[in-house]
Amino acid sequence: MARKRCILLALPLALPLALGFALDNGLPYALIDHANRPVEARSALWNDATKVEALEFKNAEGTKLAGWWVPQSNAKQTVILLHTLGGNRVDLLEFAEPIWKAGFNLVMLDLRSHGMSEGKYFTYGFDEWKDVMAAIDAVNTKQSNQTFSILGVSAGGTVAISAAARDERIRKVVTIGTFADLGETIETQTKWLPEFWRKRAIGRSEELANFKVAETSAKRWISQVQVPVMIAHGETDSYIPLNNGEQLFAAAQEPKVFFKIAGANHDSMLRSIDLQREVIRFLNDGKNY
Fold it and tell me: 68-73 long-range CB contacts below 8 Å, 24 or more apart?
């Protein structure tokens, strides 16, 4: 009886300790780590006439990165496409095909720690801008005299902005469903979590991945981008609400374009034919195709 009483008395203490252990050992990794999804060698979405070439290179730190180089006959403009957290290049095949058919070369990159690229953690543009620079270098060894644009979806948009703010070879930027500030997004999406644990989890993730959440702020970096910007966002996005796109647009320099994807949420936004057309028009300097 005494032993049972001791066990019952210990339960109120054991449960908070178990919860604390779970938070300390789970939340930090949820921010920067994920399960890599395999990359299909080819996709039925592209017909046999599509030339998809393997693109393999290393960044300045020696990290091996992988993607596809999809050339278009006599094209002088290349669009770099960046998927979101937990995805890979395959996710953008259907969206990218009309861009390729409109006359653009494509680079479809697996971001570090995604797909077939090396890397342990994802840092929301803090380090990944170096990978974009290395991708541009790799393309230039295949086909010189290219003009580069970059398109990023959700978290990939933070990488696109970070790269464009640093590399003058990028002449246009498109973001789709991208959050304005990582720290604010974490807070919004974890309102259930006490502030102490939120700060503790962020601090631990920063320690593990050697980065700073505050230094990834997309709305801060986009103010330093000196080229045309297109911000697209789903009208009914509840995961990354529309006001994120509005904040990015407000912070961006001219020339800039804002496109509200009618009726689209975070999952459906890339299926918008209107969005595809507007992206191609933007890449074509406002011309129809």
Answer: 68/106, 68/107, 68/108, 69/105, 69/106, 69/107, 69/139, 69/142, 70/96, 70/100, 70/105, 70/106, 70/107, 70/108, 71/105, 71/142, 71/143, 72/100, 72/103, 72/104, 72/105, 72/106
User: Which amino acid would we find at residue 75?
Assistant: A
Per-run averaged pLDDT (10 residues), the chain, 289 residues: 48 44 65 81 59 90 94 92 95 93 95 95 96 96 91 98 97 98 94 89 94 97 98 98 98 98 97 97 79
Residue 285 DSSP SS3: coil
In angstroms, the CA 107 to CA 88 distance is 12
- The tokens for 154 are 């959700």
Task: For the chain, list the domains and their CATH numbers.
Answer: 47-283 (3.40.50.1820)
DSSP classification of residue 85: T
* 8 A C-beta contact, residue 186 and residue 170: no
> Measuring CA to CA, which residue among 105, 91, 114 is closest to residue 43?
91
3-state secondary structure 244-274: HHHHHHHHCCCCEEEEEECCCCCCCHHHCHH
Phi and psi at 111, nearest 5°, equal -60, 160
In which residue are the tokens 């077939």 written? 116
Strand order in the sheet with 170-176: 53-58, 64-70, 105-110, 77-82, 147-153, 170-176, 229-234, 256-261
Our measurement of the distance from residue 232's CA atom to the centroid of its chain's CA atoms, rounded to an integer in Å, reads: 14
pTM metric for this prediction: 0.89
Beta strand 64-70 with 105-110 is antiparallel
- As a residue count, the chain comes to 289
The pLDDT of residue 14 is 41
Structure tokens at 287: 């011309």
Burial of 75 (0-12, 13-18, 19+ CB in 10 A): middle
